[in-house]
């Protein structure tokens, strides 16, 4: 077998502490080709603790638009809003990683260490809502990159977006892996009373050691369970998203995750099977070789069983749940567990659009608040 035919690197790159990707894989639009070589200075005794820390850089961006629309039949929303590009949580499986290629950056370490903050997100949202042609429908917040990633603690762009949605009575649904969402309960709780908000917390596994390498800068699994409880006790409808389900890594934890979330107060649940579009596939394989070399071949073999023999199949009918025997078994396990636990027992309520009030055009054109001008 030639070196070009090998699926996994012979000498896996050393993991970086606190990072998901183990390489800065070249983006598919870069013109110059880079090749990683061993110059003899790396040794088997080297550990991830010896590697220099990779500092996160945050860049201000004045976006031209803020609402993204889609018509995908397998996605339960058609409008989304993402205050940030890139995500410091560093989840190795993140389907949004390839978007950094459009910036001439790597979907690998660049994606989780070079974050772009849309500092005019609130201003653009108010302008959009004020258009006479705007037709309100629920907005999905933070589905591409987490709206509550660490930088939000200081920049508060997500907070400003929610303030506008709160003031205008505009429904939205948020999904996150961060406990920072608890900060905004003062806005979320009254919106929940009016039927204008839903929340979902993503939990892939209850194993903290696996989570530490899989999604290194997200909240720990136990902390996310506490967030579900806190949101639920505040009267906010909250669900759990098991995404992704990774065979032989997190898949065996599905029932335990559902049980823990139901006990914490979640009322609904969903799951997505591991997706590996574009550069996510080689990044994930490098991660497997670095962290799970003993089962890397088995994992990818099972992934292909669900993807028609390929690493990934973008078919709308199967891309979220997969196909074949293993995908069917996974579906049955999920359905039996949710039925036993009373999850998804009642259909999630439709968010109430009747309270929406359009901002005045003059107000929408007003300059940002003094706080926002700091950024």
Chain-wise SSE layout:
Elements: E1 57-61, E2 67-69, E3 79-81, E4 84-85, H1 109-113, E5 114-118, H2 121-130, E6 139-141, H3 152-155, H4 157-168, E7 172-176, H5 185-193, E8 197-202, H6 208-214, H7 221-233, E9 238-245, H8 254-264, E10 268-273, H9 280-291, H10 296-306, H11 325-341, H12 361-364, H13 370-373
Parallel strand pairs: 1-5, 3-6, 6-7, 7-8, 8-9, 9-10
Antiparallel strand pairs: 2-3, 4-5
Please give a structural write-up:
The chain is of the alpha/beta class. Strand 7 (172-176), helix 5 (185-193) and strand 8 (197-202) form a beta-alpha-beta unit. It is built from 13 helices and 10 strands.
Summary keywords:
alpha/beta, TIM Barrel, seven-stranded mixed sheet, 13 helices, disordered C terminus, MJ0683-like, iron-sulfur, Elp3/MiaA/NifB-like_rSAM, Radical SAM domain-containing protein
Shape: globular
| Helical proportion, percent range | 25-40%
How far is the N terminus from the C terminus?
54 Å
How many discrete domains?
Answer: 1
Element pattern in H and E: EEEEHEHEHHEHEHHEHEHHHHH
Mean pLDDT comes to 90
Poorly predicted runs are 366-375
- In oligomeric terms, what are we looking at? single chain
Largest sheet: 7 strands, mixed
* CATH topology group: TIM Barrel
Report the sheet-strand fraction: 5-15%
CATH first level: which class?
Answer: Alpha Beta
Total number of helical segments?
Answer: 13
Write out the strand line-up for the largest beta sheet, numbering strands in chain order.
2-3-6-7-8-9-10
Indicate the CATH architecture.
Answer: Alpha-Beta Barrel
């Amino acid at each position: 077998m030639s070196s070009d035919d090998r699926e996994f690197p012979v000498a896996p790159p050393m993991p970086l502490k606190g990072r998901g990707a183990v390489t800065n894989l070249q983006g598919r639009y870069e013109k110059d080709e880079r090749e990683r070589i061993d110059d003899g200075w790396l040794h088997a005794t080297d550990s991830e603790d010896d590697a220099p820390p990779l500092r996160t850089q945050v860049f201000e961006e004045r976006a031209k638009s803020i609402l993204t629309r889609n018509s995908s039949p397998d996605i339960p929303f058609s409008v989304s809003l993402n205050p940030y590009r890139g995500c410091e949580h560093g989840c190795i499986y993140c389907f949004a990683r390839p978007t950094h290629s459009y910036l001439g950056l790597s979907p690998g370490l660049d994606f989780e260490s070079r974050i772009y903050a849309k500092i005019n997100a609130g201003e653009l949202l108010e302008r959009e809502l004020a258009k006479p042609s705007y037709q309100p429908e629920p907005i999905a917040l933070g589905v591409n990159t987490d709206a509550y990633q660490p930088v939000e603690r200081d920049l508060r762009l997500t907070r400003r977006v929610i303030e506008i949605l709160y003031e205008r009575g505009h429904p939205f649904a948020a999904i996150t892996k961060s406990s920072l969402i608890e900060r905004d309960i003062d806005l979320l709780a009254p919106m929940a009373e009016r039927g204008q908000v839903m929340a979902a917390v993503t939990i892939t596994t209850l194993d903290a050691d696996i989570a530490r390498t899989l999604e290194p800068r997200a909240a720990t699994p136990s902390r996310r369970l506490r967030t579900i409880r806190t949101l639920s006790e505040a009267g906010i409808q909250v669900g759990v998203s098991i995404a992704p389900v990774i065979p032989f890594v997190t898949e065996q934890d599905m029932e335990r995750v559902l049980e823990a979330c139901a006990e914490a107060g979640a009322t609904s649940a969903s799951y997505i099977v591991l997706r590996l579009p574009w550069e996510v596939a080689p990044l994930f394989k490098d991660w497997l070789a670095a962290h799970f070399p003993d089962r890397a071949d088995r994992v990818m073999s099972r992934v292909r069983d669900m993807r028609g023999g390929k690493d990934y199949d973008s078919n709308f009918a199967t891309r979220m749940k997969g196909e074949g025997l293993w995908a069917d078994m996974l579906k049955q396990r999920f359905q039996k567990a949710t039925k036993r636990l009373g999850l998804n027992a009642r259909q999630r309520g439709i968010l109430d659009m009747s309270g929406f009030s359009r901002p005045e055009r003059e107000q929408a054109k007003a300059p940002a608040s003094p706080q926002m001008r700091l950024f």
